[in-house]
Amino acid sequence: MDLPLTAAHKVWYSQAVEALAAWVLQPKQPPTIVSTWPTAAWETFGLTAYLQGVLPLLWGMPWRSQLPPAVQAVIETGYRSNARRNQRLLDELNGLLTALAQAGIPAMPLKGSLLLENRLYPDPALRALHDLDILVQPEQLARATQVVQTLGYRIENRTWRHIVLHPPGAAAIVSWTQDHPDNPRPLDLHSHVREEFRGASYDLTAQLWQHARPRPFLGTTAWVPTTADLLHHLVAHASVSMLERLLRLVHLVDLSLMAQRHSPDLAPLSADGARFLYPALGLLAHYQPDGPLAASAARLATQVHAPLAAWIETSSLANRTTGADAPAPPGEMLRVWPRNRRERLLAVRHTLFHSRGELAALYPRLSASPFFWLAHVRFWARLLISWNGRGWHSLAQRVRARDDAGGTHGR
């Protein structure tokens, strides 16, 4: 999505991200409040907290009173707005789970709603909840979709692993600065829980169902995964988000809080599974070197190949998140992710030829039509335009450098 960052915000965004990461992931250590920051920097701080999913969380930080009054007011507004939004989302989740249970469809809530239900956060309003995630068996997906549609939900998009639906209303973003109750509240109805990156995949679907058990949940009954499997899923999801430069601080906070409650023993499910777990844990260890997941990160670091380990070593939240100043160098992940020549070729093919389900995330209507192959054409055109733009930008820089050198020489 297009982030609401002005030119003034972009100057301070990376610094605000790093300040937030350090202060939030070490909440008991008094932060070094930057007294020299101008107004634009503190405005960016509040906006960055929202974009990183931790604006309401700042309400519970012991150092909140040290922040400028205007920032404290933004935090209070964000916290109270998120409290209303979360209650609306949990009410909607209760209705969805009740309807699915009455239809005889086993349903498993995932990710954020589980963290709120089991009180991982001392106050549920401290955790921003973007959407709802429910897992059903693949053979039940069509029926589950019909049940959800009877509640007024409408299909927005389809991918190979989930269907995105929206409740009545909440179609447009009302606020770019806080988690407003009327902002979109999508439902991701999953048939699989599988993380993918550059042609490789990591499937947790069977693991989640194997250990889950039905129990009371938010006033109804749902299949609930074990704490260990929930942590495993969140780590894999955060790692792929980091690889895609979409990681948010709230993902790292979730992992840290879960590990404090549950003694982690993260063992990969497959031979190459460590590279789906180590990225997020390696980054978290930068901010919490003595944290509860540091030992797991150190163990997994020995199981990934050298280019990926080196890439993680040079990572920070500021350069692996949405809105980061420095774009990914062309072909960066083709050098970092594949472990051998075969995987590199597979990654190239995957980059150029997405599956129909993946294309649906970019072009939902076209991908659902008989002419879905045109979505490939549109994707390639966009890719070429992007590369061409980089080429012209690079050329312009070289011309300017040459002209500057010529002018200096002439003087």
Your description of this structure?
By secondary structure, the chain is an alpha+beta fold. It has a single domain, classed as Beta Polymerase, domain 2 (2-Layer Sandwich), CATH 3.30.460.40. Helix content is 51%, strand content 9%. It has 16 helices and nine strands. The chain has helices at residues 7-25, 39-51, 69-102, 112-117, 141-150, 205-211, 227-243, 249-261, 278-287, 294-301, 306-313, 332-336, 341-352, 356-360, 364-367, 373-410, and strands at 108-109, 132-135, 154-158, 162-166, 187-190, 194-197, 200-203, 213-217, 220-224. It has a five-stranded mixed β-sheet with strand order 1-2-5-4-3. Strands 6-7 form a two-stranded antiparallel ribbon. A hairpin with a 2-residue loop joins strand 8 (213-217) and strand 9. Helix 2 packs parallel to helix 3. Mean pLDDT is 86; it is low at 390-411.
Question: How would you summarize what this structure contains?
Answer:
The protein has 16 helices and 9 strands.
Going by CATH, the architecture would be 2-Layer Sandwich
Tally the helices: 16
The topology string of helices and strands comes to HHHEHEHEEEEEHEEHHHHHHHHHH
CATH first level: Alpha Beta
Q: For the largest beta sheet, what order do the strands appear in spatially?
A: 1-2-5-4-3
Q: What's the count of strands?
A: 9
Helix content: 40-55%
Oligomer: single chain
Number of domains: 1
Question: What topology emerges from the helices and strands here?
Answer:
Elements (H helix, E strand, L loop, with lengths): L6 H19 L13 H13 L17 H34 L5 E2 L2 H6 L14 E4 L5 H10 L3 E5 L3 E5 L20 E4 L3 E4 L2 E4 L1 H7 L1 E5 L2 E5 L2 H17 L5 H13 L16 H10 L6 H8 L4 H8 L18 H5 L4 H12 L3 H5 L3 H4 L5 H38 L1
Parallel strand pairs: 2-5
Antiparallel strand pairs: 1-2, 3-4, 4-5, 6-7, 8-9
Helix pairs in contact: 1-2, 1-8, 2-3, 7-8, 7-9, 9-10
